[in-house]
Amino acid sequence: MTQAPPQTHLEDDEWRTAQSQFDAAAEILGLDQGTREILRDVQREFTCTFPVEKDDGGVEIFTGYRVQHNITRGPAKGGLRYHPDVSLDEVKALAMWMTWKCAVVNIPFGGAKGGVIVDPKRLSKRELEKLTRRFATEISVLVGPDRDIPAPDMNTDGQVMAWIMDTISMHRGFSVPAAVTGKPVEVGGSLGRVEATGRGVMICTLAALKHLGMKPHQARVAVQGFGNVGSISAKLVEEQGCRIVAVSDEFGGIHNPDGLSVKKLIEYRASQGSLKGFHGAVEIGRSGPLTVECDVLIPAAVGNQLTSRNAEDVKAKLIVEGANGPTTPEADKIFETRGIFVVPDILANAGGVTVSYFEWVQDLQAFFWSEHEVNEKLRAIMERAFAEVLAVSLDKKLPMRMAAYVQAVSRVAAATRDRGLYP
Ligand code: NAD
């Protein structure tokens, strides 16, 4: 094993990562200085502090953010995250990535992200609802179907989206389902939305395996994170014939080279609250899947997991980024040198925002599609986006991440040029 350089503090800085990735793409595209300066920063950042009454009658103050990176190609779109580590810089990076993600799959949205600094596990359901409704009220000055459309992200789900939709609707005095996506189907959600990000990861995994000349049944897959994205990606790639050999969540990881049944893992996690102690597997820790013997690695937990500290130890030939920002630029360089094929986050996990776009379209038209229609339209968009990025990668001899950036940034830059500078 080669000695990795010590990880710098900077390597953990997602905003620095996002800006340096953009700078590299801008350089390749030869973007003019003005456009670079517009696109390398966020357009709007909103910070709020707000009180929530706890069940015991006490009051706790929370801080939340909503950032719109760019709205040149359409309304701002992006998830809301509830996590103790949420910071303004992280939200800015995630908002910028949303702009590129929407542009890679060519849907008419700009990029946004939001979050609240909170560990939702500490709150009762009633407290979580109060926090959500108060935060929705704070950001309601920005939110609306033609302005900014939130969606789920880490620790937020359909229920949280339903509370936000209801709060915005109460303020307006009529139902505004298109103000938020990832809602339950009963209140205007789309069939297929819950599985959409994992389905997109599966579609990219199959396309990448094909490009690398591997059959799905030859592929051993390791997955970090077993929430919405991780568990559904695992389930869907297993259905395609891949063997899941390792998975983890925040409490720990498990490994079995002969394969793990995703159905049993999902049942076990539902009953035990975590994967720890799953029968018939060896415990490997929550970072274990990153460096385990496998062909495909799907990071689907938090950011900054693949760094200069562990990139040399990764065994996978293919990395499909379910999570946002799991790989630092330092790790990216190591993967490039080692010939590891990386399907970047802004392409690999774009299935979620794509079906959010379908949900928004269905809400605006009040005309809903079958799950089959949703899945087929998603497949068409993901396969086209993968093929377009691969073509740029082969044509310009760029790694897939830079090819995706070049594709996305050139679309946003063209829209910026066409619209011109106001006033
Ligand atoms: P989630 O809250 O449903 O699940 C997160 C999972 O990661 C949980 O299993 C949690 O236990 C695990 N986890 C957290 N920290 C970990 C750690 N240090 N090591 C191992 N596991 C850890 O969240 P999600 O919606 O599945 O999101 C996961 C990632 O995918 C995030 O980066 C998110 O931004 C990204 N993403 C989500 C969507 C979506 O539609 N939900 C879309 C695009 C990208």
Automatic annotation (TrEMBL):
CDD domains: NAD_bind_1_Glu_DH. SUPFAM superfamilies: Aminoacid dehydrogenase-like, N-terminal domain, NAD(P)-binding Rossmann-fold domains. InterPro entries: Aminoacid_DH-like_N_sf, Glu/Leu/Phe/Val/Trp_DH, Glu/Leu/Phe/Val/Trp_DH_C, Glu/Leu/Phe/Val/Trp_DH_dimer, Glu/Leu/Phe/Val_DH_AS, Glu_DH, NAD(P)-bd_dom_sf, NAD_bind_Glu_DH. The active site is at residue 113. One of its GO terms (molecular function) is glutamate dehydrogenase (NAD+) activity. The record marks 153 as: Important for catalysis. Gene3D superfamilies: Leucine Dehydrogenase, chain A, domain 1, NAD(P)-binding Rossmann-like Domain. This is Glutamate dehydrogenase. The lineage of its organism: Bacteria, Bacillati, Candidatus Dormiibacterota, Candidatus Dormibacteria, Candidatus Dormibacterales.
